[in-house]
Amino acid sequence: MAKRSRASNRFAAVLLAGSLLASACGGSDGEPMDQSEAETQLLELAGEVGWQNDPVTRKANVPPPAKDLADTLPDIGEFPIVVAAQTGPNQVVAEVFVSTEKSGQGTDGWMVEVAESFNESNHTLPDGREAKVAIRSIPSGTGYQFIAAGKSVPAGFSPSNQLWIEMANVHRPMTAIREQTVPNVAGIVMKTETADQLRSNYGTLDTSTLIEAVIAGEVVMGYTDPFASSTGLNFLLTVL
Question: Scanning 34, 67, 119, 216, which has its CA 20 to 30 A from the CA of 97?
């Protein structure tokens, strides 16, 4: 019945469009109309079609990844080793998952520079072996997923947020070396006119009033994937 009803609706719509076009292309005496007259009459007919402004707010429950997390992960090789260290009988190499804002290039690659400097120092362990570090550049959330799934467990993990460490620690016990290497502050950016409007409506603009505006449907917030992004995870937890 549903398929037949939809087909009937489409057929009726085609008939309506055809009648509008026929009305616009011919005058009352049946003579053809020129283009400007046809457009004018078509606009008049379209103006008689009723409409209403009734926006629909759609909400959906987004399920977490599949039960077997390892099946959803790509090959670890897709995330490059940006600082390599050759392994040998006289070397110990510790691979560290490092978030992308610290393992890139230039100002985003300061941990790369630190690791390279350490490797060049030829640090020797008490047993005589050389200690080396390998850095794998990988988003914080993706690194967490590899650890949680047990698909690839590094010797060290340096995400951009303590939350990932706490979550990973549930699956793989970890020893904290340092709780923070550098300060990292999350922020929210919006258009100036939007901020001014929210201040006008709520008297002030802070996280609390922003959440109220989101709940009220006055603002639609977009955020990055909370399964991979520290910013998305922070925002989602703040709203919840």
Answer: 67
